[in-house]
Amino acid sequence: MYTIGIDIGGTKILGTIINTSGQVVDVAESLTRVQDGKEVVMGRVIQLIDRLSQNYEIAAIGVGSAGRINMTSGEVYYATPNLPDWTGVNLVEEIKKRFHLPIFADNDVNTAAYSEYCYGNGRHFPSFVFISLGTGVAASFCQNGQIQRGAHWSAGEVGHMILFPNGKQCNCGQRGCFEQYCSGTALVRAYNERVHSNPITNAQAFFVLVNQNNTTAIQVLDQFIDDLSIGLINLSHTFDPHAYIFGGGLIQTKDYWWDSLVTRFQERSNDAIQHIELMPAALNNRAGAIGAAKLAMDQL
């Protein structure tokens, strides 16, 4: 049996096919290009599923999407402008117009956490928080194999935890949100605010500068590490997990900041939470798509 998993993020759409053993047998991806509009983005999702399903008999499709997803209906309950006009889109109904298969939808960080629980580093802990660092920041709390989704499908939306009261404006309407300081978008903005000329446009360019020992980039990254460690300490007193597992696009740059983050987290934590483990996701940036495929398989 084969299932397809789709991960719709703010930057790219990733699709995988897994078999009953959890082995990935095919992968495809596309740029999200959110500025093209929700209809075009959904069209890219359909094209990706079409491409993946050509050589396999697919039993079901799972979708993990940015935003707060009503698992019962498949509708996007709420999304920030990271995915413009995404609120109200029914992912299940849209995909069923083209594919007459069982379709299941969840938040993309929840599906990433589920894949780590089933196949990755989450297998080793009774509880863990999966932290996704990418275009924004989000989390998923898994305890004894159960993802905690909340009364309004909003559990784990830690990117909108206020880190600095009256701080930077967030596109959610609040000020001082965690993701305005600890995301790839935040790194780019903070660097550009300091240099005033020759702006960069993405996190890849930022880490090129870090690799070149650019003084401003190093300073911005140091502040990022500080803010991230403080955010983790706050979350530790809320969730008290056995571990944090990190995924999302920024984890690919961890060689530049990981050791400093672990050190600062341990130095600043009190004795009660000091021994929470921090580790990268075993499944890297495929975790969300693999988890979506596994979610679909387990729902059959």
TrEMBL record:
Keywords: Kinase, Transferase. Gene3D superfamilies: 3.30.420.40. InterPro entries: ATPase_NBD, ROK. GO terms for molecular function: kinase activity. It comes from the Bacteria. Belongs to the ROK (NagC/XylR) family. This is Glucokinase.
